[in-house]
């Protein structure tokens, strides 16, 4: 794993935007997470679009997950969220911003269809990810199968509680979601996980320095050879080997940008 530690959430957003922009410039398939963490990165990408001409016109996007039972118009649906926070402010064609169909009465079929669509698009290039306080990525909660495809998941009580801040009451938080499975996520070219704040420190320590285990679904990213984390010092505060991770970045050879590969490769 490549672990890039930044002093502040704003610096996390700049580094993450640098990485995403390399994919945007080649018209790649973007994997988009919702939640609060990537919003600053999306804002930085919007700024680069407006002020520096970064064009998303050649890109396609797939959301990581969607609540079951919320219509696309619902202000907390991820369909709505990603448009409000990101894609409505850039020049990507709205028709190619895809998300799982949370209203399909047969959600397991919606999951299969979504997974097939990702495959048929050629696969996700860069997959932006947040991490839950319990180590989930997407909505893959602890004990998720490590090789699963897009599927239906029951939200953990911790996730319902964490996400209730976006709803008027905890009772309104959906109990189920459609999520790319860990196997689907692992198929992407580069997972890019972002985390900020002390609240994520335990989850980051478990995913990076703990064992590969379904108990911490994010630890599945240990199996991907191009996983990059961009985290702030607070989220990194539970790690034991921060000196080494900083040393790896500082001693990166001039010919190498990410994991020993040129960024534009
Ligand atoms: C969002 C998602 C979730 C969040 C995670 C962290 O699409 O799949 O895994 O990334 O719950 O959420 P925040 O960033 O709000 O702390």
UniProtKB/TrEMBL annotation:
Residues 24-227 form the Glucosamine/galactosamine-6-phosphate isomerase domain. It comes from the Bacteria. Its EC number is 3.5.99.6. GO terms for molecular function: glucosamine-6-phosphate deaminase activity; identical protein binding; isomerase activity. The keyword Cell wall biogenesis/degradation does not apply. Pfam families: Glucosamine_iso. Keywords: Carbohydrate metabolism, Hydrolase, Isomerase. InterPro entries: Glc/Gal-6P_isomerase, Glucosamine6P_isomerase, Glucosamine6P_isomerase_CS, NagB/RpiA_transferase-like. GO terms for biological process: carbohydrate metabolic process; glucosamine catabolic process; N-acetylglucosamine catabolic process; N-acetylneuraminate catabolic process. PROSITE patterns: GLC_GALNAC_ISOMERASE. Transmembrane segments: none annotated. The keyword Isomerase applies. One of its GO terms (cellular component) is cytoplasm. This is Glucosamine-6-phosphate deaminase.
